[in-house]
Write a structure and sequence with these properties.
Layout (H helix, E strand, L loop, with lengths): L1 H12 L3 H8 L3 H9 L6 H11 L15 E7 L5 H23 L24 H12 L10 H7 L3 E5 L7 E8 L2 E7 L4 H17 L9 H13 L2 H8 L8 H11 L3 H10 L5 H14 L17 H11 L5 H8 L3 H8 L12
Helix pairs in contact: 1-3, 1-5, 2-3, 6-9, 8-9, 11-12, 12-13, 14-15, 15-16
């Protein structure tokens, strides 16, 4: 148990056996023996290991273990194995803490993910995905207005969203997997919000469109189409831009980005997909974007990155309901007990506790 966790934490820290051994003050062979379970570190060595790896000592004794299944990376060809190992180790740790937290509740506090029953069984062309996306929105009671928080929507529907702080350095486009039958979608904390949101919607497309696409349809293109239609529905787009346009102002696309949380390029593609603009207008604006360098870095204020709040909320809820104590809550959240107590004081003011 400890050996496997040590190996995972070392991979997450991006350290070699030799590098970790030097930090702890033991030989590389000793670290290797720890990882293989041949020998056990002493309590003092355990403390040194936890400090070097950036984890709490309790991490090595956490009883619950999970396995990521069906891992699919949307990665660039330059993504090294070392980076993927760090990401997967971080995802495993977060997913494990999620699973442990949920197991504390006598009744599941979040629903199991299930496919909407009203979805079409077969998609024969990309245009049909417009109606498909609208159906998902209608089933989930999202209407046609902008989705204010994609992470919150997915978590409320039973999808586990993990935001990794590992520096992906532009070499990862997303990760999807499952834990105990629960879908998992991973995004980077370093991405701007519009990129996070498109990745989340794209991976949702994979979940919902699986087994429904005609053989002639490329799945990645279909999921891109779904992501765009889910974030910026056709009716909403036409309401903002009109049914037919001979040209578009870049500022219009920027305003759509700020309102709907989709990139300017994504909004431009949606305008073309919904036939608001012709091929010639799209091509002209593509060239303009390339000339201005906007295809790699869009102008103006970036769309704010999203965060996940549900885990912390459920941890504090478990604390309030006496399912766990302060030390366990601190361990799950990733704080020291003193830091947790400061948070509970609400900036120096004691939080009101209502006893029923």
């Amino acid at each position: 148990m400890i050996g496997e966790r040590l190996h995972r934490a070392r991979k997450a820290a991006g350290l070699s056996l030799r590098a970790l051994a030097e930090q702890v003050g033991v030989s590389q062979t000793t670290i290797n023996k720890y990882e293989k379970g041949v020998s056990m570190p002493s309590s003092s060595q355990m403390i040194k290991l936890s400090k070097s790896l950036g984890v709490k000592v309790e991490y090595f004794f956490r009883p619950m273990q999970i396995e990521l299944k069906g891992v699919e990376y949307r990665k660039r060809s330059s993504a090294p194995k070392k980076l993927l190992a760090k990401i997967e180790a971080d995802v495993l740790d977060q997913a494990e803490r999620w699973t442990q937290l949920l197991s504390l509740y006598p009744k599941a506090p979040v629903p199991e993910f299930s496919l909407p029953s009203s979805l079409a069984d077969r998609i024969s062309c990309l245009e049909e995905i417009e109606v498909f996306a609208d159906t998902v929105r209608e089933t989930w009671e999202l209407g046609l207005n902008p989705v204010p928080d994609m992470i919150d929507v997915l978590e409320s529907m039973g999808v586990l969203v993990i935001v990794t702080s590992i520096d992906v350095a532009g070499r990862l486009d997303g990760l999807a997997a499952s834990v105990n039958g629960t879908p998992v979608i991973v995004v980077s904390a370093q991405w701007p919000g519009d990129r996070q949101r498109f990745t989340l919607a794209h991976e949702l497309g994979h979940l919902l469109l699986e087994g429904r696409l005609a053989q002639s349809i490329d799945e990645e293109k279909a999921c891109d189409r779904f992501a765009g239609a889910f974030l910026l529905p056709k009716k909403s787009l036409i309401k903002c831009l009109g049914e037919r346009r001979n040209r578009l102002e870049s500022r219009e696309l920027y305003l759509l980005k700020q309102e709907f949380g989709i990139s300017m390029m994504g909004a431009l593609i949606r305008a073309h997909q919904c036939r608001v603009i012709a091929d010639s207008v799209k091509d002209s604006m593509f060239r303009y974007f390339s000339k201005k360098g906007w295809r790699t870095s869009e102008p103006g204020t970036p769309y704010p990155s999203e965060k996940t709040y549900m885990f912390r909320q459920l941890a504090y809820r478990a604390l309030a309901e006496d399912y766990i104590g302060e030390s366990k809550a601190a361990e799950l959240i990733g704080l020291s007990t003193s830091e947790l107590r400061e948070e509970r004081k609400m900036g120096g003011m004691d939080a009101a506790v209502v006893n029923q």
